[in-house]
Amino acid sequence: MSFALSAPAAIGTQFPCGTKLNARSAPRQAARQKSRVVLATAAAGTGPKRVIIAGAPASGKGTQCELIVQKFGLVHISAGDLLRAAVKEGTPAGLEAKDFMDRGDLVPDSVVVTMVKDALDTPAAKEKGWLLDGYPRSASQADAIAAEGIEPDVFLLLNVPDEMLIERVVGRRLDPETGAIYHVKFFPPPADIVDRLTIRSDDTEEKAKNRLSVHHSNVEAVVGKYSDRVREINGDRSKADVYAEIEGIIDTM
Ligand code: AP5
Predict the structure, then answer these.
(1) pTM of the predicted model, to two decimals?
(2) Is the CB of 107 under 6 A from ligand 1?
(3) Domains, the chain, ordered by start
(4) How far apart are CA 167 and CA 187, in angstroms?
(5) What is the pLDDT of residue 121?
(6) How far, in Å, CA of 26 to CA of 32, rounded?
(7) pLDDT digit string, tens, across residues 42-101
(8) Which Gene3D superfamilies does its entry note (predicted)?
(9) Read out DSSP for 191-253?
């Protein structure tokens, strides 16, 4: 599917109502109109939507993914969640990943790439479309999926100033039953579930600083792989405002 966010604008640039066609211009204008309609239809896309969401630790990827999935029904594939599940299950991949995650370093491609490829290679992801969260985080990871013909329609990049991110990390709380993401200050959880909430082991200030520095070292190379499809989003706004912009982008894909 080709990516173009200007589908409505392209449709809107067709002949205004009341344009008069004469014998000489009519065929040419009709042909032009037809090609615009074809272009707009291709741009709007009829197949499943394929979205990558990226950003620094705690920039709000997971939070926005909850909302995107509710509206668009895409299959959410979070590299971090896949890895945490593997660690919890004690699989060989999880055992290999654990130390890297504990430090806030990138897990080797030999572990992550297969995991993500397998998650993308499911009937549900192919039929409903997918929302890839936290992958790729390096040029080599981008190349690995491109080699399989896996390309996003859009690459969303959430931008949040570093000084905000540490506060978001250390205040994050997770509901293991529903998967909901809270924050002690920004999105306080309901009182009746507070006791069951968990804190990620890498959500300390020290580890978050390393995760942030790993992000800064790699982000440019990854963005460069999708430069024709990148949409940068100011993530330093309310959750609803950030989502409104994302929703508009995905809607017009
Ligand atoms: P991963 O789990 O992907 O962690 P991350 O990238 O560090 O991102 P986070 O999950 O911390 O944050 P988020 O952006 O989802 O923010 P959230 O919505 O929760 O990866 C963990 C580790 O796994 C990595 O360090 C690495 O070791 C490994 N790994 C993962 N992918 C890998 C890969 N591809 N290759 C190699 N290794 C990989 O929000 C955070 C907090 O902010 C919450 O409390 C939330 O309530 C709050 N918040 C959200 N939005 C707002 C807002 N608008 N205003 C105020 N607060 C907000």
Answers:
(1) 0.85
(2) yes
(3) 50-252 (3.40.50.300)
(4) 13
(5) 96
(6) 10
(7) 345 568 999 999 999 999 999 999 999 999 999 999 999 999 999 999 999 999 999 999
(8) P-loop containing nucleotide triphosphate hydrolases (3.40.50.300)
(9) GGGGGG-B--TT-SHHHHHHHHHHHHHHHHHHHHHTTTTEEEEE-SS-HHHHHHHHHHHHHT-
185: Cα within 13 Å, side-chain hemisphere: 7
What does the block give as tokens for 220?
A: 């440019």
Tokens of 236: 């330093």
Cα angle, residue 154 at apex, residues 153 and 155 outer, rounded to 5°: 140
Alpha helices in 107-183 (DSSP H): 109-120, 123-128, 139-146, 162-170
Pocket of ligand 1 contains residue 152 by CB under 6 Å: no
Cα 60 to middle of ligand 1, angstroms? 7
- What single-letter amino acid sits at 37? V
